[in-house]
Request: fold
Amino acid sequence: MNNDYKDSKFKKLLDKLQQESWQLELLISGFAIFGLITAIPFVRTEMNVAENDKQIYAFALLLIAFIACCILIFNLLIHVILRGLWIGALGLRYVSGEIDFEKLNYSPKFTKHLEKKIVSFDKYVATLENYCSVLFAASFLLIFYVISISIIILSIVGIATLILANDSLPELPRIFIGVFLLFFILIGAFLVFIDFLTQGFLKKNKWLSKIYFPFYWVFSYLTLTFLYRPLVYNFLDNKFTKRLSFFLVPSYIIISILISFKNNKTNYLESARYVSSTYIDKRNYEDLLVNGDDFARVATIQSKVITDPYLKVFKVFTENVENQIYNYHPSLSPKNDTRGFKSDVIKYDSTESLVKRDSLIKKYLEILNKTHQIYIDSIQFDKDFLIAKNNKNQFGFETYINIKNLSEGKHILTLKRFRKRKKDTILGTDIRIPFWYFKN
Reply:
């Protein structure tokens, strides 16, 4: 088949496909809605994992995927409903034909009003067809917009963290390059946004276009605009598609605001979840972490009601815990920090490095145990944290507390941690977990 876009046969083929595209639209919409609804629980679960593990970049990417899924599901559901209405209108047109306002026998005032507003049934069918076709294309265009905005935000964060906050680079070049790149992206993002809102005003002005062009050229590659630029300009050269594209974004904002409303039934109980000693949070009890998106937040014990003569305490690992250990024992801080995204394609550990690492891990746990304290009510208990994973595959530290001499009834477990703030050392509370102890 000849795909030369100038060939008349190829144009006829496109015209034919254009007439029959509604079948493909419905097919793709159906499969896409099913796939996206199936994927959303998995994406939400992975988002919770990334949030709990403080994996900022993974969380950001998953959040982008979640937003994209929600936009697609919302748009495609509306598309299917409108396309179903369009098919119903076609079927009704086959049976009833055009609207005969004379047969309705309305008063002249209403007849004149309806003829002016409705015009004809064929116009109604044509309008539905236009909305369906444009909405289907706009759904994927909006995904590209989300990706572009996300790339800009991640670029700003990346420059701030990798260049401005990287102490391994020389200070003056680091600040100069970082500030230059940061200002370039911020100014460029602002100009692109203004050009988008004004529908290309910066491109129309002779002098402004010369200033704007370098930013436009860089951002076309940075935000992947070159992949969907024809779609954008095809939207902007038509009044109908232009109006619809401007209606969609505000509609998302309005919907987001509407779904944020909820009926508050109490002045106190809703805020109780922020006070760990008065609120039973299922994330603090291992036996209640049963759903796919249930994860330990700070620490857990085995259950709300303890009948065993011991208490199993699991402390969730976070990057901040390791940073605090480095503050207390700087020699544990490695010269080459291997945290972050790394490849395991080439990985070799000599026997000497393994022995050295084993001794460092023991020192690591020693500092961890020194900087953490466990209290039940007001009594401090001995502990010996070891590295472990809980039943949700979360990394952390596990220890067991002897409570056979504890009185029966309600108790509060408190996990405290020493923090270094400049020259001061502060003992702060990580979490309080209420539980009930009853002997067998």
Observations:
- The longest strand covers residues 424-437.
- The mean pLDDT is 80.
- The two ends are 80 Å apart (CA to CA).
